[in-house]
Amino acid sequence: MAQLTTPIEISLKNILVATDFSAASLAALIRVVPIARQFNSVVHIMHVIHPPEIAIASPEANSKICQQANIDAQRQLKLLEAKIGAVPHRTWLREGEVSEAIEDLV
Protein backbone atom coordinates (compact mmCIF):
# COMPACT_ATOMS: atom_id res chain seq x y z
CA MET A 1 0.00 0.00 0.00
CA ALA A 2 1.39 3.38 -0.99
CA GLN A 3 1.78 5.89 1.76
CA LEU A 4 0.99 9.53 1.11
CA THR A 5 3.29 12.04 2.70
CA THR A 6 2.77 15.72 3.01
CA PRO A 7 5.81 17.92 3.42
CA ILE A 8 5.90 19.56 6.80
CA GLU A 9 7.11 23.12 7.02
CA ILE A 10 8.63 24.33 10.23
CA SER A 11 9.35 27.82 11.41
CA LEU A 12 11.98 28.67 13.97
CA LYS A 13 11.57 32.30 14.96
CA ASN A 14 13.66 32.12 18.12
CA ILE A 15 16.51 29.84 19.16
CA LEU A 16 17.80 29.85 22.72
CA VAL A 17 21.38 28.87 23.49
CA ALA A 18 22.21 28.70 27.18
CA THR A 19 25.91 29.12 27.80
CA ASP A 20 28.37 28.56 30.61
CA PHE A 21 31.14 29.84 28.30
CA SER A 22 32.62 26.35 27.95
CA ALA A 23 33.93 24.84 24.73
CA ALA A 24 30.77 22.73 24.50
CA SER A 25 28.56 25.82 24.76
CA LEU A 26 30.57 27.54 22.05
CA ALA A 27 30.23 24.49 19.82
CA ALA A 28 26.44 24.54 20.31
CA LEU A 29 26.30 28.24 19.42
CA ILE A 30 28.38 27.74 16.28
CA ARG A 31 26.07 24.92 15.15
CA VAL A 32 22.99 27.09 15.68
CA VAL A 33 24.19 29.89 13.37
CA PRO A 34 23.47 28.12 10.03
CA ILE A 35 20.07 27.01 11.33
CA ALA A 36 19.26 30.59 12.33
CA ARG A 37 20.29 31.82 8.88
CA GLN A 38 18.17 29.19 7.16
CA PHE A 39 15.02 30.07 9.12
CA ASN A 40 15.68 33.79 9.63
CA SER A 41 15.65 33.17 13.37
CA VAL A 42 16.75 35.34 16.26
CA VAL A 43 19.40 33.66 18.40
CA HIS A 44 19.04 34.31 22.11
CA ILE A 45 22.27 33.74 24.04
CA MET A 46 21.70 33.35 27.76
CA HIS A 47 24.04 33.07 30.71
CA VAL A 48 22.90 32.65 34.29
CA ILE A 49 25.09 33.60 37.21
CA HIS A 50 24.35 31.20 40.01
CA PRO A 51 24.59 32.85 43.43
CA PRO A 52 27.12 31.40 45.86
CA GLU A 53 25.69 28.75 48.15
CA ILE A 54 27.43 30.21 51.18
CA ALA A 55 28.98 33.57 51.88
CA ILE A 56 32.73 33.13 52.13
CA ALA A 57 33.59 36.76 52.79
CA SER A 58 32.15 39.94 54.20
CA PRO A 59 28.98 41.34 52.61
CA GLU A 60 31.06 44.04 50.91
CA ALA A 61 33.51 41.49 49.50
CA ASN A 62 30.65 39.24 48.34
CA SER A 63 29.07 42.23 46.60
CA LYS A 64 32.35 42.95 44.79
CA ILE A 65 32.67 39.30 43.81
CA CYS A 66 29.14 39.35 42.35
CA GLN A 67 29.84 42.61 40.51
CA GLN A 68 33.01 41.15 39.03
CA ALA A 69 31.16 37.99 37.96
CA ASN A 70 28.62 40.20 36.20
CA ILE A 71 31.34 42.22 34.43
CA ASP A 72 33.14 39.02 33.36
CA ALA A 73 29.92 37.48 32.04
CA GLN A 74 29.08 40.62 30.04
CA ARG A 75 32.55 40.54 28.50
CA GLN A 76 32.15 36.86 27.58
CA LEU A 77 28.73 37.52 26.05
CA LYS A 78 30.25 40.26 23.86
CA LEU A 79 32.83 37.75 22.61
CA LEU A 80 30.05 35.30 21.73
CA GLU A 81 28.16 38.03 19.88
CA ALA A 82 31.23 38.51 17.71
CA LYS A 83 31.24 34.78 16.89
CA ILE A 84 27.76 34.87 15.35
CA GLY A 85 28.32 38.01 13.33
CA ALA A 86 25.34 39.47 11.48
CA VAL A 87 22.84 36.81 12.57
CA PRO A 88 20.04 38.57 14.47
CA HIS A 89 20.63 37.94 18.15
CA ARG A 90 20.04 39.11 21.69
CA THR A 91 21.98 38.38 24.86
CA TRP A 92 20.50 37.75 28.27
CA LEU A 93 22.32 37.82 31.59
CA ARG A 94 20.40 36.68 34.65
CA GLU A 95 21.19 35.77 38.23
CA GLY A 96 19.62 32.89 40.11
CA GLU A 97 18.82 29.26 39.55
CA VAL A 98 19.60 28.24 35.97
CA SER A 99 16.43 26.25 35.34
CA GLU A 100 14.19 28.99 36.72
CA ALA A 101 15.94 31.72 34.73
CA ILE A 102 15.62 29.74 31.49
CA GLU A 103 11.98 28.95 32.19
CA ASP A 104 11.25 32.63 32.88
CA LEU A 105 12.85 33.66 29.58
CA VAL A 106 11.08 31.01 27.56
Q: Fraction of residues in helices?
A: 40-55%
User: Strand content of the residues, in percent?
Assistant: 15-25%
Q: In terms of per-residue confidence, which ranges show pLDDT below 50 for 5 or more consecutive residues?
A: none
Termini Cα gap: 43 Å
* Number of DSSP strand runs: 3
What is the CA-based Rg, rounded? Answer: 18 Å
The major beta sheet can be summarized as: 3 strands, parallel
Q: What order do the strands of the largest sheet run in, or round the barrel if closed?
A: 1-2-3
What general form does the structure show?
A: elongated
Q: Give the rounded overall mean pLDDT.
A: 89
The total count of helices amounts to: 3
What is the ordering of alpha helices and beta strands? EHEHEH
Structural class, from secondary structure content?
alpha/beta
Structure, briefly:
The protein has 106 residues and is an alpha/beta fold. The protein contains 3 helices and 3 strands, in the order βαβαβα. The protein has helices spanning 23-39, 59-84, 98-105; strands at 14-18, 42-49, 89-95.
Overview of the structural elements:
The longest helix is centred in the C-terminal third of the chain and has 26 residues, at 59-84. The mean pLDDT is 89. The protein is an alpha/beta fold and 106 residues long. The protein has a three-stranded parallel β-sheet, with helices on both faces. It has helices at 23-39, 59-84, 98-105, and strands at residues 14-18, 42-49, 89-95. The chain starts with 13 loop residues before the first strand and ends with a helix.
